Amino acid sequence: MTTIKRVAIQGGGGSNHEIAAKAFFNSEDIEMVPCQTFEELFETLRKDNSIYGIMAIENTLVGSILQNYTLLKDSGLVVIGEYKLRIKHQLLALPGQKIEDIKEVHSHPMALAQCGDFLKQYPHIKKIASDDTALSAKWIQDEKLEGMAAIAPELAAKKYSLEILARDIETNKRNFTRFLIISDKAKTEVEDLLISNKVNKASLVFALPHSEGSLSKVLSILAFYNINLTKIQSLPVVGQEWEYLFYIDLVFEDYNRYLQSLDAIRPLTKGLKNLGEYHVGKRSYDTVSNDNKSLEEQKTF
Amino acid sequence: MTTIKRVAIQGGGGSNHEIAAKAFFNSEDIEMVPCQTFEELFETLRKDNSIYGIMAIENTLVGSILQNYTLLKDSGLVVIGEYKLRIKHQLLALPGQKIEDIKEVHSHPMALAQCGDFLKQYPHIKKIASDDTALSAKWIQDEKLEGMAAIAPELAAKKYSLEILARDIETNKRNFTRFLIISDKAKTEVEDLLISNKVNKASLVFALPHSEGSLSKVLSILAFYNINLTKIQSLPVVGQEWEYLFYIDLVFEDYNRYLQSLDAIRPLTKGLKNLGEYHVGKRSYDTVSNDNKSLEEQKTF
Questions:
Q1: B45 near B53, Cβ under 8 Å?
Q2: How many CB atoms lie within 10 A of CB B117?
Q3: How far apart are CA A15 and CA B295, in angstroms?
Q4: In B217-244, which positions are buried (b, 16+ CB within 10 angstroms) versus exposed (e)?
Q5: Is B177 a catalytic residue?
Q6: Which of B38, B39, B40, B60 is the best residue to mutate to test the A interface, defined by the most A CB atoms within 10 Å of its own CB?
Q7: Do A242 and B297 touch (CB under 8 A)?
Q8: Which segments does the entry list as coiled coil (chains A, B) (predicted)?
Q9: Which of A74, B127, B137, B266 has the most CB atoms within 10 Å of its CB?
Q10: Assembly ipTM
């Protein structure tokens, strides 16, 4: 018997977060727990540790979602997996509406920005920033708003019975978002699903003393231990301008070697924090490539 | 006799770009050349190499402006300076308007997001994404639009004779943007202004072979040459998902030592490109700190 998994997402049903959650858990037996904000999502997970969370962290066009790194670091929750989703944007409206009827388009500012080339063809359409792509679609259906369109995923069109006025309107087709699946630590220790996948990736955050070559030392030690990096990001600390935190993602073959490398770098960092250990994630790659070899490819340095 | 300097900015007069330009050139003898987009700004500089450009590159809250890194890298132009500006947002409207009259607020999506806490108090005000903070202010004055507000700098209020309905409405007061001053290479070689300031900082971009510890090697060599880092950013290459470019900022005391270090790392990188050499920039710090010591402080690692 499969138990239904509950997964907290920011925004409404039909969003890219829901699509990524379904792809990660590879099952329809999941129930979405919608949250207004990412802050509320973390609060939800803290209150009920049977609930998972999913959160966008990085996009191949716009880079890291820095606020989410900060929320994760401060939450005490851990990353238990990742998924990379190809982002496609659809222009949705009530059935029967034509693009000439549309006076306003509502969506998340990032989605509006990513459809810039398409929207430039329709200068009379007002671009209105909302909290969420899918919730904009829901709102148009709930209020039966003519003359309004939303930019949202195809799933939102199905869910809220809207028509797709224009398909795949994103300017750049090579647009992937990486999502992290997060959970309460206690729970991950007993979850079959998660330990069945071999852990071969980890996310860390640390500060460094302001001494010459301090980052170089940490990276050298990781290299001595055959630990590869897939990401490095220096991030200004809010309230201490031009002071930095370093977020790094590591991949490794040997879990013990990885643990030893953490012990080896810890004394050279300030406040080293392990944000989670997980398995390198799959990616959706339908319209970009059908090359199966690249399914789990991840470049390292 | 001082000659008037022309400085291309993205967006309209009265923007943070204009404020930063005036602060960097420390003079009123500059004339703004407004450009619709950053792409147009680079085009303008290429056509007339007597024109400088100024471009936001990094914000202490939201991180790097990745698109601008890409534009800079591909432009063949170079960075000749930097300035760090404390960002403040004002709610502007036609004189006589009250906040209760306002039905829509127009601004750049980033400004809307940075004033989230303030705007939450007025859920009836529609947040409308525009291309530019200052241009939204200008539009309200040009069209004499009642019921409309813009989020823009105080300079825009003066310039377009608007009233400040609410002052300093940004959620986080520790909000700095780092601007780069860019120019055509040929020009910088003859410009007194620039060579009078000792060069002690540089911005580089490179790719790396996918071999274990490749970044660690580059950073180790820089450390051996006593070159400090102030920033590192791995940035996904658009069109080659999970392939990365590295943008690093360096500071140094000895210019020759720095040149030698570039020669030393070049064979270990792919396509090392120097984006510019300049003097560590001043920052505006009025409401955050009056501590003069921190004026040029920049943390290194």
A1: yes
A2: 11
A3: 45
A4: bbbbbbbebebbbbbbbbbbebeebbbb
A5: yes
A6: B60
A7: yes
A8: none
A9: B137
A10: 0.75
What is residue B152's three-state secondary structure?
Answer: strand
* Nearest chain A alpha carbon to B66: A62
Intervals of chain A under pLDDT 70: 1-2, 28, 185-197, 238-243, 285-299
The CATH superfamily holding the domain A5-86+175-288 is Periplasmic binding protein-like II (3.40.190.10)
Q: To the nearest whole percent, how much of chain A has pLDDT over 90?
A: 56
Q: Stretch B198-209: mean pLDDT, rounded?
A: 90
Rg of chain A over Cα atoms, rounded to whole angstroms, equals 21
- The architecture in CATH of the region B90-166 reads 3-Layer(aba) Sandwich (3.40)
**Chain A with chain B: Cβ pairs closer than 8 A:** 150
Q: Which fold has domain B5-86+175-287?
A: D-Maltodextrin-Binding Protein; domain 2 (3.40.190)
Contacts of A135 in chain B (CB under 8 A): none
Task: Give chain A positions within 8 Å (CB) of B208.
Answer: 301
Q: One-letter amino acid identity for A215?
A: L
Express each pLDDT in B64-109 by its tens digit: 777 788 889 989 899 999 999 999 999 999 999 999 999 999 998 8
Q: How far is B173 from chain A (nearest CA, A)?
A: 8
Q: For B165, list phi and psi in degrees, rounded to 5.
A: -80, -35
Q: Give the angle A98-A102-A107 at the CA atoms, nearest 5°.
A: 120
Out of A63, A130, A236, closest to residue B66 by CB:
A63
Question: CB B301 to CB A220 under 8 A?
Answer: no
Q: Which of A279, A299, A230, A283 is nearest to A86 (CA)?
A: A283
- Long-range contact set of residues B237-240: C-beta below 8 Å, sequence gap at least 24: B237/B207, B238/A60, B238/A61, B238/A172, B238/A174, B238/B70, B239/A174
Within chain A, all domains assigned CATH 3.40.190.10 are found at 5-86+175-288, 90-166
C-alpha dist (Å) from residue B7 to A276, B24, B33, B52, B132: 47, 11, 6, 5, 17
Cα–Cα distances (Å) from A138 to A43, B151, B200, in that order, read 24, 28, 54
- Looking up tokens 């080293």, which residue turns up? A272
Q: In terms of Cα–Cα distance, which of A43, A67, A78 is closest to A203?
A: A78
